[in-house]
Design brief:
The chain has 2 helices and 11 strands, in the order E-E-E-E-E-H-E-E-E-E-E-E-H. By secondary structure, the protein is mainly beta. Strands 2, 3, 4, 9, 10 and 11 form a 6-stranded mixed beta sheet that branches.
């Protein structure tokens, strides 16, 4: 298992919100012992000179091998967090996306690998089951409230 730590600079990231029957697609976030501590929508860092839209499309193509459609304007969020004792800082573009027709329709989970070789599992979660006692946290912290406020 790869241990990940935030880098000591501000990252700009784009994440995509894919919904199926009211459930959000999110990847497991694990602690150093391999325990699931939460989930996070898929996406990643925006490269220098790249638009947030291009970064979001690239990330889904790299991770899942599909071409997404961005279906709305982005929400913006600043995320200052601590992971395993290290502070991270992100500025986030968060956008609704659609998959190509039929993509992963029969799947309950999606398994993929990050660039560093880490195996990742993503599943669809009901927002009501996240950020509650006994359930996984939704990262970034505050995303659930942001999503509930927009409706």
């Amino acid at each position: 298992m790869t241990t990940w730590r935030p880098r000591p600079h501000i990252r700009v990231v784009a994440i995509g919100l894919h919904w199926r029957a009211g459930r959000l697609l999110a990847a497991e976030v694990r602690d150093d012992a391999g325990r699931i501590k939460g989930v996070r929508p898929l996406g990643g860092e925006i490269e220098f000179g790249e638009s947030w839209q291009a970064a979001l499309a690239r990330e889904f193509n790299e991770e899942l091998g599909i071409d997404i459609i961005i279906t709305g304007a982005p929400l913006m969020m600043e995320n200052i967090f601590v992971h395993e004792g290290a502070t991270g800082h992100e500025v986030m573009f968060i956008a609704e996306i659609a998959f190509p027709p039929g993509a992963f329709d029969s799947e309950d989970r999606i398994d993929f690998r990050e660039d560093n070789g880490e195996e990742i599992v993503a599943r669809w979660f009901d927002l009501a089951d996240l950020d509650v006692e006994g359930g996984p946290n939704l990262y970034p912290t505050g995303l659930k409230e942001l999503l509930l406020r927009r409706n």
